[in-house]
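Ticket 4471: requesting a sanity check on a complex prediction with pyridoxal-5'-phosphate. Repro inputs:
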Amino acid sequence: MKSYFRKIIENMTGYIPGEQTGEKGVVKLNTNENPYPPSPRVLEQIRARLSERELALYPPPLSDPLRVVAQKTYGIPADWILVGNGSDELLNLIFRVFLDKEDRVLYPYPTYTLYRTLALLQEAHYQEIPFEEKYQLLPEELVQGEAKLKIICNPNSPTGTVVSISEVEKVLAASACPVVVDEAYVDFAEENCLSLLKKYPNLLILRTLSKSFALAGARVGFLFAWPEMTQGIIKAKDSYNVGIMPQIAAQAALEDIEYTRARVEQIKKTRSWFSSELAKMGFVVYPSQANFVWVQLPGSSLGFLYQGLKERNILVRYFSEWPDALRITIGREEDMKLLLEEMLEILK
Ligand SMILES: *Cc1c(COP(=O)(O)O)cnc(C)c1O
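Returned structure tokens:
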């Protein structure tokens, strides 16, 4: 058949998400989901509040009741908050509103590969600049480079590492363009960039409820930015981008944030124990402030390990772009124990 697609679509691969499986008995450590259920209030509230009428009507277009709760949780005025159908939707919107064809977007490398896909869709030039110092310093070219958009994923995926707030501030101060700080994993980290928001009108902070809040299935993300920024981005947004069920779920989860904090602490404990076990086995393990670890055996290919684990019903993430490493989500302690046992078996 003749192709009807734009040339760029014809030639691109498209973003490849980690495998999703509903299969029982599979230990799923490949897409950084939370191993624990969300706050029990989430289902309670969906059951209590969801009426036939609520389903028959369009949801609040800007998720206003949720924004009011988020305002309290994060200490940010409601008009500085934009709610998205996952933070992936917000990233999509950001690329569409700031990047024309041929414009340049800069981000450190390696990082979340969706940025590249979104740049390709805009026919923008993407410049992937290698991190310095084991992913803990931002490259000078990112700080000084001319661009229409810059992105910093912090904590970074797939490495789990962080750059300090002062590193991020250098980029904000030196850049005459919007700078996105994707804080998808920041609830597992020691610091975040919220304190920079009042000072830098070019700062866009992204958050998601998919990881720390165990609501990946609900699809809710937040953008924190100056009202001039959120208002501009709203022009490109679907009118009713977040369904009523996700809005209710997110609101309930934020109202019970103590529950999430306790689970996050458990995951951090498991992360620290698991990281030291991997280091004992001879892997290079980067210091993670996320709910996953990046494990490397420099110079070798870990495809066999990924494959072997998959045959034993354990899914971890392997990227052909970085064959000497695996990204492993932190699950429950018993999941990680099983994983270590199977790894030892395969490596024997
Ligand atoms: C998971 C993830 C997202 C997307 O989160 P959703 O809110 O589920 O769309 C964005 N950025 C990074 C770096 C992520 O890992």
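Notes from triage: Residues 86-88, 112, 153, 157, 182, 184, 208, 210, 216, 221 surround pyridoxal-5'-phosphate (CB under 6 Å). Leaving this open until the requester confirms.
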